[in-house]
Amino acid sequence: MKIKDMTIISLFIALMIAGAFLKIPFPFIELTFQAFFAIMAGLILGYKKGVIVTLLYLLLGLFGLPVFAKGGGISYVLIPSFGFIISFIPGSFMAGYLYKKKKWNKYIVALISMLFIYLIGVPYFYGVLRLYLHSDIAFLTLLITFIPYLIKDLLLAILGGYLLRYFRFLNLEQ
After folding, report:
1. In CATH, what number does 3-170 get?
2. Is 104 exposed, middle or buried (0-12, 13-18, 19+ CB in 10 A)?
3. Is the pTM of this model over 0.85?
4. I need a labelling partner for 11 at 20 to 30 A (CA). Which of 61, 77, 164, 173 fits?
């Protein structure tokens, strides 16, 4: 791997970490920007490097570095929102693969990738609430709770597609 690739991968890991701490407080959970940066990593860097970024981010947090919104460590897998962190890996892969390899429209790719993140994150969230925290919340109630967050993330995905034009100077082919 070239020095340029390692530098840009490191930059995107730093952006994911910063995205965890850029918080907009809402009831129950805070809005963060990690999903946005995971999708941008896939769109800009392609699926291979996008997966490297998100996987290294996940591993840094699991090894105990406080890179997630509420810290880090292996016990983080029992936090309901950890499913979203896991979903960044396939979400970034999907963004890079569909955009760079299949040449799909960047806006459609960003939206599909964000929805994919939610398809993994919400059931994990529900599973931890029900099985570990013994909450009696209904899945439909949880889905309704996530609608404002999904709308925010879909808007960020569209913004990501728009901002993509400003990263062409990087010339980052797979």
Report:
1. 1.10.1760.20
2. middle
3. yes
4. 77
